[in-house]
Amino acid sequence: WKEVEHLPKPEKWNRQAVRMKMFDNLIHNPDRNAGNLIVDDDWNLYLIDHSRAFITERKLPFTMVRVDAELWDKMLALDEPGLVAAVGTWIDRGSIRAMLRRRDAMKVVIDDLVKRVGPPAYVK
Fold first, then answer.
1. Quick check: is 38 in a domain?
2. Per residue in 21-64, pLDDT tens?
3. Taking Cα atoms as reference points, which of 97, 52, 100, 96 lies closest to residue 75?
């Protein structure tokens, strides 16, 4: 066992976990598990292995109970031409369109969450 010198600050760790779920919902990565995460000495979370992501599935793989407003604003700004320019070499248009449909499905969930919970729905 590695000796842990310091634990992560809960707010930083929680924000990273929320962002991970949001990103995995956007790209439809249903295979997130401890083996697909790297954590450095400063408790920064790195997401690896997206081999099962970027498919045309519309369903969101993870339930969202919190939202990172900064990441959400960036996700809302995504559009097909921008995504094609950024990742079109690796991801086909059908998968890009599916990503945008999942983003739209996330909007329904997030709008409902914010309506029910209010500002506490957002992590800082």
1. yes
2. 999 999 999 999 889 999 998 889 999 999 999 999 989 999 99
3. 100
